[in-house]
Amino acid sequence: MFTIPETLTLTTVSNRQSTDIALMAHLLRRAGFGATRDQIDKYLEKGYEAVVEELLNPDRAPMEDEDLMDRYFIASVEARTANHANPQWAWRMATSYKPLEEKIALFWHGLMAVGGVKLDHGLEMLTEIELFREFGLGRFQELLQEVSRNPGMMFWLDNQNSHKDAPNENYGRELLELFSMGIDEMGEGAYSEDDVKTAARAFTGWASKVTPPPFFLGPFEMEFQFDADDHDDSEKMFLGQTGNWNGEDIVRIICEQRATAHFVALRLYDYFVSDTPDSAEIERLTDVFQANNGEVRAVLREIFNSDHFKSEAVRFRKIKSPADLVFGTTRLVDRFEIPELDSGTLANYTLFMGQYLMNPPSVEGWHEGEEWVDSGALIERINFASTEVSRLDARGVQRMLDRVRETGDELNSEQFVDACLDGMGAIDASPRTKSILVDHAERYGTPWEVEAPDSLERAIEMFQLIVSTPDYQYC
């Protein structure tokens, strides 16, 4: 029962505290999937820069609930398809105490896309996600080398069909165009068509071993294979450098290019900072990338600690991806203690909203920003979020109610709305949205202006209204 202690009075925080809270909440939304108000307070005790370092340096130890997850998600242990593998990754994004590790895996999964429908090997999809966890924050060259040896990627981009007498250009082309150097608005890159052909020749012999068909317990693991007899070992010119290059040389030369540093900086900025590029910031991050030997962690450290990232100008300006919305809301309500059957359906909700995890629509991955939201997806997003914040059996919802209650028992309509916004993870609302929420509170009453049986409903109703606003679609 939602009751109001008679002795509590309205409490306020100083402007400095309010600023610190808002900044920490902003960091946790962008470097992860958001946090509850209680978690924000715990992070504040550590200090902003210390939290940045903690996020950037997750321990590589197995998660404590790994055995429990395998017990509940039996089909994921030897996952046949992406659908079998999805519950395991969804659980990690919904509960992991290493949120940036999962966020960076999602970033690279969308950039170096491999689709589960064509690959049709759930176990390999999980292997790829683990690859992004392990190498995603390190040196870009090392990540690109690992991706180039990944049997799922080689199969996805047809490199098993690339032979020294008949090179297949798929991997060489996507490596340059989509994974590393990119193209401009005119479709031009800092490389030539001859460079694509040379890259294809250098990667001949790099392939996925022939994998036996799945047996009744699940699929066999995929393995990388290099066939020296099928490799073109002749002299090659690539990006102006001549030598007997192989795939490792191609990756090394790519990572020496300013265009690659700019490409990675741009994509990191777009994903973690803003849907609208800032040329000066991206050039600065490009310099950081090159000065730190291509370490992704160094670029993200510069991003998160910068005045630009901390400014109000970039807060609540990025449209949430379906994963951001689903797992951010799931973390907020905190209703899962074990990886039960219901939690195994979380990835379905991102699919309904347009993001089929472990199965990007094409080699380009997903298109971020406004393309996430159309009329159909918006209905799914609102329905999911409003249902979740109304679950009274969820620990997070109870804590949200407690925090609103503890704010005081003499709140006016505006103070009540502010308390709800704060209790939901220090989220913000535009003046127009705020006025609509306050108007609703004035029209139907705050919990303290109605009979006790209706108190809980008024607060839950306000939570539902907040997640139904356009503002909640941004992070």
Question: What is this entry, summarized?
Answer:
By secondary structure, the chain is mainly α. It is 56% helix and 3% strand.
Please provide a written account of the structure:
There is one protein chain. This protein has 475 residues and is mainly α. The protein has a domain at 15-55 and 319-473. Helix content is 56%, strand content 3%. The chain is built from 25 helices and 4 strands. It has helices at 15-30, 37-46, 48-56, 66-72, 74-77, 82-95, 99-111, 116-119, 122-135, 140-148, 151-156, 170-180, 193-202, 247-255, 258-272, 279-291, 296-305, 307-310, 322-333, 346-352, 375-388, 395-406, 413-423, 431-444, 452-467; strands at 206-208, 224-226, 236-238, 241-243. A two-stranded antiparallel ribbon has the order 1-2. Strands 3-4 form a two-stranded antiparallel ribbon. β3 (236-238) and β4 (241-243) form a beta hairpin. α1 (15-30) crosses α2 and α15 packs across α17 (296-305). It starts with 14 loop residues before the first helix and ends in an 8-residue tail after the last helix. Mean pLDDT is 90; it is low at 1-13.
